[in-house]
Design a protein that fits this description.
Layout (H helix, E strand, L loop, with lengths): L1 H15 L5 H5 L3 H5 L8 H28 L15 H11 L23 H26 L5 H20 L6 H21 L5 H27 L5 H9 L1 H7 L8 E10 L3 H9 L10 H5 L4 E7 L6 E6 L2 E11 L3 E5 L25 E13 L3 E12 L4 H28 L5
Antiparallel strand pairs: 1-7, 2-3, 3-4, 4-5, 5-6, 6-7
Helix pairs in contact: 1-4, 4-14, 6-7, 6-8, 7-8, 7-9, 7-10, 7-11, 8-9, 12-14
Length: 430
Amino acid sequence: MALKIAVDAALVRWLTGASIGLWAYLSPVLAHREAMFEGGSDEVIGLWMVVWALPFAWVGLSMSLRRALDAGLPGMVSLAFFLPGLNYLLMALLSVLPSRSPGSDERGHDPPASPVSTDRLKTAMLGTGIGLGIGVAMTLVSTVVLGEYGSSLFVLTPVMMGAAGSFVHNRRRPRTLASSLLVGWLSVLMVGGVLLLIAVEGVICLAMALPLAVIMAGFGAVVGRALALRGGGTARQVALAVAALPLLGFMEPSARGVPLLMAKSEIIIDAPPDAVWPNVVGFTELPEPGRWFFELGVAYPQRARIEGAGVGAVRSCEFSTGPFVEPITVWEAPHRLGFDVASQPPPMTELSPYRHVHPPHLDGYLRSRRGEFKLVALPGGRTRLEGRTWYELEVFPVAYWGVFSQALIGAIHDRVLAHIKTLTETPGAP
């Protein structure tokens, strides 16, 4: 824990100059943890924290499982390691419970391998089907009933899918680790296919969720296999753990906040601020986007116009999915233009085999709050044009999903700033 905290704090300090407190790590309230990302403008930080956290998550989960089995507890309690608050209670409990009396096989080592069973395919299909059922059911409950896109859906659900499926696959006879992992990963892929076919989700968001789901399902598959081989769980205990998932999804919003994030981009223009300013306030039609993710359906800016001048004027930035309505709050010509976001269109048009798919997360889960353009005069009659967007992301964990939001908003910034640069530097441009 000390190593992870020290490296995270050093990286954030190096990249942003900001300090993050110890309480943000130790607090069981997710709002304090997510606050570490407030004001962040670099997706590198979020990506690093995700990758850096994975080995520590595995150490904590595997140690909790080994200690629970050693203490004679059901192995499924080790999954509480992923629950804020309860994880501290779990670790404290496991630290003081005595070891149980070892049995004839010690219960601490895998039993001798059995001959390959003829029902291997059957148990693999059954385990995959159970994982599929868990994933589809929890997705529908979380998104349609609870309206939640949280860590219980994107972290704990794939862990439980992998654990339950692998447990069933290994329950009667020991299977290989590779086949157990395959059961967990196949269930993840099948859940994505089913959600696509029943028009609950589109290709883009499923593709973004896939890396995290595959990793967590792999964790779960290893745990489920260990539970089955070491006698650390029963089918009833696994069923109770699965049944608790919707309850955890219901409780999660009360333990977290929604951080305000910031995305920033800049470009150098060979013209003074006076010449750049008119193209910041409003600009003509942009060329068609060349980046592949815009062509797949991610919203992109097309043009901007303004009604009035000064504070109180209303700027309209039209995207491929509709207009952003932006009342002007700061008018410091030719150096700074600030605005709030009064209304905004969906962030994307989902790619799907159906003509129209509109998942709930397209409405209000990514909310732009305000933005600004800042023009800084440079030597030689040049201008550094900076664009900033402050936004809220109500999809968790923010450390993971913030990587995508920062990258996509940054691409939108780059498209607008490059167009302003072209208009300003091209003689006779409208």
